[in-house]
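Incident log entry.

Two folding requests arrived from the same account within the same minute. Monitoring flagged them as a possible duplicate submission, but the sequences differ. Recording both here for audit purposes.

Request one:
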Amino acid sequence: MKRVHEHFDDLLKGRIDRRTFFKRAAATGAVTPVIANYLATPAGAVNYSAPSANRFNLTRAMAQSANLAPPAEGIDTSEQLVFRGWNYRPEVVQDNTNRFNEQYGENVDYQTITGDYIAIMENFHIANQPLDMAYANPATLARWQIPGWVHDYEAWWDVDDARGELYDGVRESLTIGDKLYGLPYFVSIRGTMAANMAVLDKAGITAEDFPTTWDELYTQLRQLKADGVTEGAPFLPHWFASGVWFGISWGYLFECLNRGAVLFDDANAPVFDEKSLAILQEWRTLLEEGIVPETVFTMGEADWIDAFATGKYAYSPQQIYDLKVFNDPAKSQVAGQVAPVPVVEQPWGIIDEGIYTVPKRANDSEEKLARKYRLAGFFGYRDQVEGGELYVAKRWAIEAALNSGYKAILQDPEVIEAYNSWLPDPSLLAVLEGIVNAGTFPKVWQTFWWEEWNAQAMSELPKAVLGQTPVEEVHAALKTLAEELVVRYQM
């Protein structure tokens, strides 16, 4: 029997109508007021496109000033706040939760979720299960906002301060229709170009010779191949495609964005211009020339990270936080020799992040909501008890090189000391800051249909690059799919 969230997905993908969804969901007792209100919205009244102007505006922000006060001292906290997270360093999250409980006399129940976290959380929302804070990914934030599953932060007393301290791209990624809907758990630039100096030194390439664009990168890689500097392929691209939903499709998205190719315009209408086709054609050529290894398509993310840590490749667009892994002697064969390529003429990669959301429930009184905001603010902004420190974000930066959405983290003396303990050169911290500051966010992630398009792209893009299906055919089919999805979700 299908789970409730699968019926909801069928509804939004046009496979069943609203009457059928109500009938099936009612059989499980899972039609919540939130879902009922969403389903009662007249056809065509819901806009699934990202707003074209999510820019921060101080005047607008002041007009939306907070109307809740922090929880009063001595407030009743006997009712638990439920916090469910995915399974990354749960011991650290539990320790942070304990700190919050102790400082505020609070009662937070933190547990990790095993399995498909996002699907399980959607079940929580649909079935109206108790939930007061949960993680989200960039695309799921918009997906959860559409049916009203999460509160925005506009009633939170610190919203304007937090909003003003974020990197511009991060602020845009967390903003939907002028309202802040998330706080940053971590922020990475996926596609940060990592340079392996152990290979490049053999070719006489120094930091002054680093490529400043994708075109320059490919030119240099072809020369490295021609000179026989590496035994095999010199480049490990973001094309992994085994058991993941963010490999080659995200690699294609961020290279298009970095190079000015347009897959989707500012209103998220499918364009798929000639530049985006040319990139895919060049990928096919790079594989034929032996610039990239064919084995990348069979890699999962962990395999892909491990592969670059072997030291075989000259360059690879990695996550910014894994630079710490590549410079760790216990995990990498080229420790102390992997540097980030700075942003000069174009950004590298795109913003990826974990997000703290505040789920919406029917029993959210103002007192309850204030407690939820305090919890989310502690994890996603500042620890007010300790004088307003970015405590949780700073801890993640020091212990795991997980960067924050706040500019102040990479300027903190203790964070600087921690990063310099593993960076090959202290001057590279400024390079990291420049990469994050230039980070861009794909607006298409703020559509409901992105994940459906992305799933198809994950399966079709490898066929184009491997020559199993003509490049032009795959490119045209992905455009057609996007056009169909736009029509379907604008009904």
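Request two (distinct sequence, not a duplicate):
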Amino acid sequence: LFDIKGYHGVTRERDSLMNGKNCYLAYIKDLPGLEEEKYASYLPHFARVEYSLAYNIQENGKDKRLFTWDDIAKNVYKTYTTFSSKEIKEGKKILDNKTYQSLSGTLQKVNWIENYIKGNIVQQEYVQAENAEDIEFIIKNKLTTEDGIKKMFALLLFVDNIDFEIGYTTNRFNKPFDYSFINPDNLADCLFYIPAIQQYIAPNYIVYR
């Protein structure tokens, strides 16, 4: 079963069964044109429909929600705070150099880590290797995916005990983040927040430092 939500005047009708298939209908009447204005956002004001796979129908007739924001948060936390002893060892090797060890303060260390990752590891949307997001592969090949880059950031911050938080958001020029509608599509851009310096890292944007 899917959750459906309409924005900016789009009305969602009740679900229906047609030819043995679940069907979802949404509509809008008399949709006015939307003109672009200089210095104003444009796409966020479009009428649109979003849908998300939400429930599994159980054999006992009860519907089970597939995930919640809390479930997603727990999965993200586990992914970026759980490392093997071998991965931690590899991370410590990277930070075990005179330059890094001579740094004082969280800001300098975070700057070094960011410059190291963004200056040495190539990020691609797709890498033709099943283990492209494994720490050993990343360090050896200097190549990984967006998720692999985030994992490298998390590892190096983790091994030097630099506290961090991970958040996800949308591009506000495309659409605002709608917390009331559970849709993974809202998790478009990742940010690492460093409480000690009250600053953010945009791990997947090479030009942002």
